[in-house]
Amino acid sequence: MSGGEARSRLRSALADTTRQLGEAGVPSPSVDARALIAHAAGTERPLVMVEELPEGFAQQLAHLTARRAQREPLQLILGRAPFRHLLLDVRPGVFIPRPETELAVDLMHQHLDGPPHEVVDLCAGSGALGAAVLDELPRSRVLSVEIDAAAAELTAHNLERAGTGRGRVLQADLLGEIPQLAAVAPVDAVLSNPPYIPPDALPRDAEVLEHDPHRALFGGGDDGLEVPRAVITWARRLLRPGGVLIMEHADVQGKAALAAATDCGGFDLLRTVPDLTGRDRFLVARRAPGEPTSGSERLSR
Ligand code: GLN
């Protein structure tokens, strides 16, 4: 096959795949078509650089396209999701990391006086936040807490890939007492993208509704904030004075999240931070000096 022939097959594959995905209601058909074509062609390079297509390319692409047309998330088809500088492994049944959550790591840096050494990620899912911390801060240690067994296993895998030996996972329910978590206080930062969707707000996208586990989406209680409240309470227990909690929430929950942190007490700076589209999406809460937090087991031991 000549380079010219490969390119002409790629051009028509791009047009066909984009059309099929568009007809299936996929929101970004041409971006997804390119990603599926590159996957079927077994390349990481831009498609214009591809000189040759592997045997079985057309069948493989048809198979991938059919999956995406059924609204299976692109990340699950490719088996990975970009998150900050990482390509995380993702698996069916585990919440897929979202680009908006990436901002939590920058907010942590902005609100601390130096790089954090000890970081806790609550409701870790695929392990995205903890893995990003390990990757970007070579001296950091992370403890990730995740309720679901399959997700906890994926977190352990992604932490290990990002920072061998510096990450640890606890499979536990934040609504209960967790002595091994209490024992790591005091830490510099608590990061969390907890479930927070209220019970009556169904996600619109089929990819989310049918593929993200509902336990990772719906936060519990009338307002979706049962698990986020537990995150705030844990942050108060775990953070050193001056340490920060960065927690994602829904765009309508800014005031309620601030109120939850005020009710919890123990913080001397509370703020709501918008995402890149201007919507309120993060609670920032800095631990006040005051009663000491106690813990016997250091993360860095
Ligand atoms: N952000 C999720 C969504 O897009 C909601 C749940 C979460 O991230 N914790 O559906």
From TrEMBL:
Molecular functions (GO terms): nucleic acid binding; peptide chain release factor N(5)-glutamine methyltransferase activity
EC id: 2.1.1.297
Lineage of origin: Bacteria, Bacillati, Actinomycetota, Actinomycetes, Micrococcales
Superkingdom assignment: Bacteria
Residues annotated as transmembrane: none
Record GO biological process: methylation
InterPro entries noted in UniProt: DNA_methylase_N6_adenine_CS (IPR002052), HemK-like (IPR004556), N5-glutamine_MTase (IPR050320), PrmC_N (IPR040758), RF_methyltr_PrmC (IPR019874), SAM-dependent_MTases_sf (IPR029063), Small_mtfrase_dom (IPR007848)
SUPFAM superfamilies assigned: S-adenosyl-L-methionine-dependent methyltransferases
Protein name according to UniProt: peptide chain release factor N(5)-glutamine methyltransferase
Enzyme class: transferase
Keyword annotations of the record: Methyltransferase, S-adenosyl-L-methionine, Transferase
Catalytic activity, reaction form: L-glutaminyl-[peptide chain release factor] + S-adenosyl-L-methionine = N(5)-methyl-L-glutaminyl-[peptide chain release factor] + S-adenosyl-L-homocysteine + H(+)
NCBIfam families membership: hemK_fam, RF_mod_PrmC
Domain Release factor glutamine methyltransferase N-terminal: 13-79
Domain Methyltransferase small, chain residue ranges per copy: 91-196
UniProt organism field: Brachybacterium vulturis
